[in-house]
Amino acid sequence: MDETRHSDIYARETDSRIRHREFLLQGVEDLTLLDDTFMKIALNDIEACQHVIRILMDDPSIEIVEVRSQYRISKLVSKDAVLDILAEDTQGRVYNLEIQRKTTLDHARRTRRYNAMVDAEYLEKGKEYSEMPEVYVIYISETDIWKTRMTESPVEKYLKGQLTEYNDGQHTIYINAAINDGSPKAALMQYFKTCDPDDMSQGALSRRVHYLKREEGGIEEMCEYSERIFNGGKEEGLREGRLEGHREGQLEGRRKERQTIIHLMRVQGVDEETIEKIL
After folding, report:
1. What is the distance between the alpha carbons of residues 100 and 110, in angstroms, rounded to a whole number?
2. With 70 as the cut, is the pLDDT of residue 76 above it?
3. pLDDT at 71 over 70
4. Distances (CA, A) of 170 to 115, 117, 119
5. How much is the pLDDT for 28?
6. How far apart are CA 219 and CA 21, in angstroms?
7. Whole-number pLDDT of residue 29
8. Where are the beta strands (DSSP E) in 122-163?
């Protein structure tokens, strides 16, 4: 068992507030913007999100007016979708930022689904198709999933045999954090990977990360978020253990505690790799 896991198990079993607090703080310090959990919190801020979108879109004039993280699109008969970041600008354009999950096997169909879900969400009854917004799905990957050796790979659509662009208002842009070509996008991705709170090179995004990792209010926000996840599972597990009242019951309670924590993390949108690291 590694030291980090031992520290948290000790903290939860002995109710050592100091050790548990240290565990939470260390977890916050280690998070990067390629952890979708942290990205959802960091970019749930208009100025920070705007900074990222302006760079990835090569457009410093974009003005973001609304941002939502973990935006759930629910359907009665089909699978729900939870979008990492959904933002809208003053022109009515919609941006969906997604972080690659290593468990995803078909990246193209994943982006297709998000495009379709956003379209369905914003096509109101009685509206014309021409009123559908421009939608940009920006898919950020830690690895070079398409083997392009390029930081940016926009998907372009053309009629077969023609140079005429097929513009249906859906735009997919793949951003590859594995390649550093010296561009502003690559510099942003390098920052995503390190997320150093003392690196102030990324303007509003750096200020947001510094706030969450270094300033009292931000640290409390991050710790409270982690605490909600862990305590929900802990209380459920202890309740099960008390009902059994013997060693087997306690072991079962701990097993249920872990299962509940995993469930709560998944509900919160935490990816499987991050769950494995924590538990």
Report:
1. 10
2. no
3. yes
4. 7, 12, 9
5. 80
6. 11
7. 83
8. 135-141, 152-154
Q: Is the dihedral of CA 208, 214, 220, 223 positive or negative?
A: positive
Name the CA radius of gyration of the chain, rounded.
Answer: 21
Q: How many residues does the chain have?
A: 279
Q: Which two tokens stand for residue 190?
A: 């390098």
Which parts of 30-188 are beta strand (E)? 64-73, 81-89, 94-99, 135-141, 152-154, 170-176
User: What's the token pair of residue 147?
Assistant: 């083997």
Question: What are the tokens at 144?
Answer: 């070079």
Tokens of 32: 């990067």
Tokens matching residue 141: 């990957």
71-75, 84-88, 265-269 — which one is most confidently predicted on average? 84-88
Report the range out of 111-120, 193-202, 233-242, 267-276 with the highest average pLDDT: 193-202
Cα(87)–Cα(43) distance, rounded to whole angstroms?
A: 10
What is the pTM for the complete model shown? 0.76
Write down the H helix ranges in the chain.
3-14, 17-30, 36-42, 46-57, 107-122, 184-194, 203-214, 216-244, 247-267, 272-278
d(CA 97, CA 268): 17
What is the C-alpha separation between 18 and 16, in angstroms, rounded? 5
Q: What is the pLDDT of residue 1?
A: 45
Largest interatomic CA distance in the chain: 74
**Tens digits of residue pLDDT in 104-114:** 678 999 899 98
